[in-house]
Amino acid sequence: MSPRLSILMALVGAAAADMPFDIQTQFIDQGGCLPVMLITALFVAKTMASMAFGKTKLGIRQSLTLVSLIGINWASFGTQYNVHTDGAVLVTGCSSGIGLDAALRINKAGFTVFAGVRTQKDADKLVALSPSLRPIILDVTKGEHISQAQITIEQSGLPLVGLVNNAGAAAMSSVELEAPNSWILEVNFLGVAQLTHKLMPLLRKSKGRVVNIGSMYGNIAPQYISYYSASKAAIKMLSDSLRREMYQIGDPVSVSIVEPGFIKTPLVESAVREAVEKTNAAVGSPYHDSLVASTKGICAQPFLLKFTTVSHTSDAIEHALRSLRPRVRYLVGLDAKLFTFLSWLLPERLMDQVLSSFFNNLARPEVLGPLTGDPNCNLAFKVA
User: Fold this and answer.
1) Do residues 256 and 320 lie in contact, with contact meaning Cβ atoms separated by under 8 Å?
2) What is the pTM of this model?
3) Are 245 and 199 contacting, i.e. CB atoms less than 8 angstroms apart?
4) CA-CA distance, 168 to 270, in Å (whole number)?
5) At 107, is the pLDDT very low, low, confident or very high (cuts 50, 70, 90)?
6) 109-145: per-residue pLDDT in tens?
7) 56 falls in which pLDDT band (50, 70, 90)?
8) Residue 264: helix, strand or coil by DSSP?
9) Which alpha helices (H) appear in the chain, and where do they start and end?
């Protein structure tokens, strides 16, 4: 296969991967992975054209390539899972952002949604938005809350057909300037693991589905979000291992992970405000200027990528819960797909430079000003 054709196939595959879910699903639910199907079709067309014009014969190399592509296509068809049209779905972290939008979307689709929130105020807000939602007080770091959530679902008499582990925390800081943040790991990983552990018997009984909300930062770890990235990488490994456990025992429980790129949510806005405070406390530190640039870059991302919203994440969650062939991973947003691809393609040292340049260039006043309307992204930094 010529280098030019290989590049063309890669571009077609990338374009197909970035298609909207409603278009992709028409192909995938009919049986397969769209990029792989397109690559196979291109290879077959190229080989047949070359043979027709007498430029090549179907030799050993072409035959092996064709057999390999057909095999990959067959494997990519994916396991079929039970499609539920009703039943109970537990969504955690529903007070705002991704969780709130997902809960409303799933509820609208006909499921009974138990929406986990941490305060009664948030529970009242959910009921005001949609009276059919069933809010429950659920802090995933508290064992008693998890046990009570299990009891509440069991007492409802409804089969638990879905668990969406969305509750999360975020923070920015330097490893040297801030000691390990156990709270982030407790919320983003240990809480998810404990809740999933408790509810797996109910999910296996109903042949339900688990959808974990990860992050593109579970695939790449930019500067100053080490603890957050570590927690999301742990979620990715948990999802992979649990999925393989289900496969090993022949149990029809689907396990998917949704990995969004940068989406502007109250959680992110809170993390940026905290980052400004930590950066101002680091005046005089060798990290100060770099922290300022990285925080400004994070602040600018929603303006640069404003077309990616919580609605796109809900598209992925709904597909993972309702599709005949749910995907293993959902990368949501162009930045998630691009950076994950680059981290696979580029040498590690070069990727270090790419990430550093990306945030530093976003933080430049001539870039930041037009994007956000303020050269400091409306953040009050102290001058070193």
Assistant:
1) yes
2) 0.81
3) no
4) 12
5) very high
6) 999 999 999 999 999 999 999 999 999 999 999 999 9
7) low
8) coil
9) 3-17, 21-28, 34-52, 60-76, 97-108, 120-129, 143-156, 182-185, 191-206, 226-248, 266-281, 288-304, 310-322, 334-345, 348-362, 365-372
Task: Specify the CATH architecture of the domain 88-263+308-343.
Answer: 3-Layer(aba) Sandwich (3.40)
Render the burial of 271-282: b for 16+ CB within 10 Å, e for the rest.
bbeebbebbbeb
Q: Rounded distance, CA 129 to CA 211, Å?
A: 24
User: Are 212 and 239 contacting, i.e. CB atoms less than 8 angstroms apart?
Assistant: yes
Which amino acid belongs to residue 286?
P
Q: How far is Cα of residue 359 from the mean position of the Cα atoms in its chain?
A: 21
The domain segmentation of the chain, as residue ranges, is 3-76, 88-263+308-343
Percent of all residues in the chain with a pLDDT value above 70, rounded to a whole number:
73
The predicted model gives 229-246 an average pLDDT of 96
How far apart CA 51 and CA 54 sit, in angstroms, is: 5
Rounded to whole angstroms, the Cα distance separating 296 from 307 reads 19
228 flagged as catalytic:
yes
Higher pLDDT, 3 or 120: 120
CA pair distance 323, 28, nearest whole angstrom: 9
Structural element, H or E, at residue 163: strand 160-165
Which one of the listed residues 228, 247, 287, 330 is annotated catalytic? 228
Q: Tokens representing 203?
A: 């999910």
